[in-house]
TrEMBL record:
Keyword hit for Cytoplasm: no
Entry annotated with the keyword Lyase: yes
Protein name as annotated: Crotonase/enoyl-CoA hydratase family protein
GO annotation, biological process: fatty acid beta-oxidation
């Protein structure tokens, strides 16, 4: 999309790369706009089923570009929030591939993803209080929803860095790879997911995300609103036919 955000499509997987390695992929306005545009583009493509977000040069992202912040260059898109992502993630499954640091806003971008694959050398943290700031791009809201309360409080209040191994123990990181292997591990997982029907994937993600706020007496009705169109889709017929004919399905996203 821009020099600061690179987009590549490999089969049914789209890869979005924050490309400011000299700044440890700090997020400025250009990066936020680039991520937002990339997500819109990939979300709208029928040939893409899964999206991977990563950073160039061995670092995911050190967070907000503080120099840009001081100059008034805010990395926020109206209606989408920090990085053009945290308030409006894509409908399709989104996997974070983390090498090096994912700190502050960088960690908040990770928390906006559905699955996290991290290098054994990756470090995560919310150091905003050390700079007189608050992790207001979803960090202090999402961390306690993903891991136990007291550990979430420690991460949010100390500003310390935590290794991928620790967050894997807590269930926040799905898979830990050798150094340099996060993107490869994320792509491997993405291809497994992308072999499934794209409409079913998007609907499944929507139910997992939205059902947390559904009342017990309304949950099946709300689920039906999302699921019924999937059962009536051409892909549902194709899935059944492929099973009966003992062949791989040919998904159309219809």
């Amino acid at each position: 999309m821009t020099e600061d955000v690179l987009v590549e499509v490999d089969g049914a997987v789209g890869v979005v790369t924050i490309n400011r390695p000299k700044s440890r992929n700090a997020v400025n306005g250009a990066v936020a706009r680039g991520i937002a545009a990339a997500m819109d583009d990939l979300d709208g493509r029928r040939d893409v089923a899964v999206i991977v977000l990563t950073g160039a040069g061995g670092t995911f992202s050190a967070g907000m570009d503080l120099k840009g912040f001081l100059a008034g260059d805010l990395p926020v898109i109206e209606g989408r929030g920090f990085g053009g992502l945290v308030e409006a993630p894509p409908r399709k499954p989104l996997i974070a591939a983390v090498e090096g640091y994912a700190l502050a806003g960088g960690f908040e971008l990770v928390l906006s993803c559905d699955i996290v694959v991290a290098s054994e050398e990756a470090k995560f943290g919310l150091p905003e209080p050390r700079r007189g700031l608050v992790a207001g791009a979803g960090g202090v809201m999402r961390v306690p929803r993903r891991i136990p309360y007291h550990v979430a409080m420690e991460i949010a209040l100390t500003g310390d860095h935590y290794p991928a191994s620790r967050l894997h123990e807590l269930g926040l990181v799905n898979r830990v790879t050798p150094a340099g292997g996060a993107l490869g591990g994320a792509l491997e997982l993405a291809r497994v997911i992308a072999a499934n029907a794209p409409l079913a994937l998007a609907a499944t993600k929507r139910i997992v995300v939205e059902s947390a706020d559904w009342r017990r007496d309304e949950m099946f009705g709300k689920q039906a609103e999302i699921v019924n169109p999937i059962f009536a889709s051409k892909d549902a017929m194709e899935g059944a036919a492929a099973f009966a004919e003992k062949r791989a399905p040919n998904w159309k996203g219809e």
